[in-house]
Amino acid sequence: MSPKRNIYLQMKSLAEARRIVLDAFGDNPLGTETVATADAVGRVLAAPVTARFSSPGYHAAAMDGIAVNAKHTFGAHPDRPKQLAVGREAFPVNTGHLLPPGTDAVIMIEHVQTVDAEHIQIEAPAYPWQHVRKMGEDIVATEMLFARLQPITPYCVGALLAAGLFEVPVLARPRVAVIPTGAELVDWQRLGPTEAPAPGCIIESNSYLLGALVQAAGGTFQRHDPVGDDVQRIGDAVAVAVAEGAHMVLLVGGSSAGSEDFARATLEARGEILVHGVTMMPGKPTIAASLAGTPVFGMPGYPVSTIMAFEQLVQPLMTRMLGQLPEQRPTMQVVPTRKMASKLGVEEFVRVKIGQVGERRVATALPRGAGQITSITEADGIIRIPANSEGVGPDGAVTAELLKPAAAISNTIVVVGSHDNTLDLLADELRAQSAHLSLSSSHVGSMGGLMAVKRGVCHMAGTHLLDEATGSYNLSYIQRYLPDVPVRLVHLVMRDQGLIVPAGNPKGIKGIEDLAREEVRFINRQGGSGTRILLDYRLKQLDMDPATIAGYATEEFTHMAVAAAVLSGAADVGLGIHAAARALGLDFIPVVTEQYDLLVTQAHFDTPAVQSLLAVINSSRFKQRVASLGGYHTERTGELLL
Ligand SMILES: Nc1nc2c(c(=O)[nH]1)N[C@H]1C(S)=C(S)[C@@H](COP(=O)(O)OP(=O)(O)OC[C@H]3O[C@@H](n4cnc5c(N)ncnc54)[C@H](O)[C@@H]3O)O[C@H]1N2
Ligand code: MOO
């Protein structure tokens, strides 16, 4: 191994890195172009614009009624109504009409009485310019309508057209070239309809993700086909993009320290590296370089890292080049449901689910892995943990930047506890039946769910805790751990738990007893999960010592993770639900049918949101969908057990 492998240059703080980027490129000109006003929303005015026409362009009636000369109306009183001659002193007009010559006021039709075909009568005088929109009241021809760098909103389009400005000079959109790199990348367009990427290959998605972010930030993007891991070819692609006039280039992947991470070498050979390594996570290996004055960013390959690098460094540069101030996301004070530890020395962006539980807004951290795009698609917000902090919570409030509207957050039912695939169906059915409600579930195992209910940080918990003494589920745990917490228990489903083995069951596993066989490697679930309790119960029943099971100490956190371990060959067998085995085409040997319930805090039980959820649980559509997953039984679904 080379002793000098691609070590980051001195790491910069995010603020420092951003300053370096903005100082170096913030004044790069974008150029200007002229566009039709009607198509100009989202653009930025490149020059001040002055009105060609006034608005209104004439004195206009502001109400339906009669136009008069105010002088002729003076003296009118309910006791002494005044008559005016139609066509001489009183002229019928509608809103927007040009005022007839000699008139300077409008009397609303409601205040006008008809005397005969030639006369009307009024009981109050009009004052001059009453109910008239005077010429130029809104916009005066020759005056400046907008200064330069005005962002053009739909409102502005209205004003520009009214002022006779049918086309406008705007800043060119930042042109951003996006070049994905990596020999493992597969272009989705080249994948046959039934073809899956070969092991080791992954679908190239970041360039489209970045392209969409570029467009949302007011730019256009030019995507390059994926380039293999080759300094020369990557360098050529960047050079061509710069020569063709890109305002900036995003080189995606290969930004860190791997043997095939070529971004740094490429950019060093062709230009000057300004930043390599930012003390933020995700996004640490981000590079900022200059190629003949054009900014080129080495974007990390992990999707969440690439998003953070974009939002924290690239987007601010685009915004600055467009002469705009950075937009701030709305924020909310939230209480973490448990401590979120963080590494000293890096600013961490923790993606969180947020829910309103009673008076409190609680935040639960999603997985931290920067490779997990769902950690941001699922997120309601982001908590920034500063570089000098070792973590936040669980007691104090912290600030979360919101990724969703606050109203959506307060309409979310927060489920914390054991995971079951039917919760996903429940979330979908809830959406189908009450579009404004959503359900968010975090998976911390059954005991974790009970504790979350106890601490008041969720509305409900999914739980399947077996009482070894009685063979019953959940009730004894509630008595023991939540003696003082008023709760209800709703039966959700019965589900088959069993041994998940590779297709064809090559090791001929028939039951729990086989776990003790020397050549069988097991994958376990974490302590406190209902599945782990079930396993330990069966082992005790069978008088088996956990120490005899190879892999007993290796733990995964979800049914799907257990199934994935079996699929990958990391283990020969695991205990989990039928649906997980089915999803990955694995074989399943039923062991037990267990009870999975929802434990609902009494305080939330009668809320409209929870009642809507109960209605969904009791619907035949939900039960049918559950049944079609396989391995589930819904005869008692919806029953109130407590
Ligand atoms: N020894 C070290 N390894 C790593 C370090 C480190 O400091 N030392 N940093 C880690 C961090 S932090 C990050 S973030 C990642 C990202 O680094 P790279 O920019 O070099 O990314 P790649 O290795 O090229 O790819 C990572 C991952 O993302 C996938 N990828 C890449 N491009 C795309 C794309 N266009 N579309 C979809 N997915 C893409 C790629 O296949 C990999 O799976 O490095 C850590 N490693
Ligand atoms: O800092 Mo890297 O960008 O997670 O994950």
UniProtKB/TrEMBL annotation:
It holds the Pfam family MoCF_biosynth. Transmembrane segments: none annotated. GO terms for biological process: Mo-molybdopterin cofactor biosynthetic process. Residues 177-320 form the MoaB/Mog domain. GO terms for cellular component: cytosol. It comes from the Bacteria. It is an enzyme of class 2 (transferase). Its EC number is 2.10.1.1. Keywords: Magnesium, Metal-binding, Molybdenum, Molybdenum cofactor biosynthesis, Transferase. Belongs to the MoeA family. Catalyzes the insertion of molybdate into adenylated molybdopterin with the concomitant release of AMP. This is Molybdopterin molybdenumtransferase.
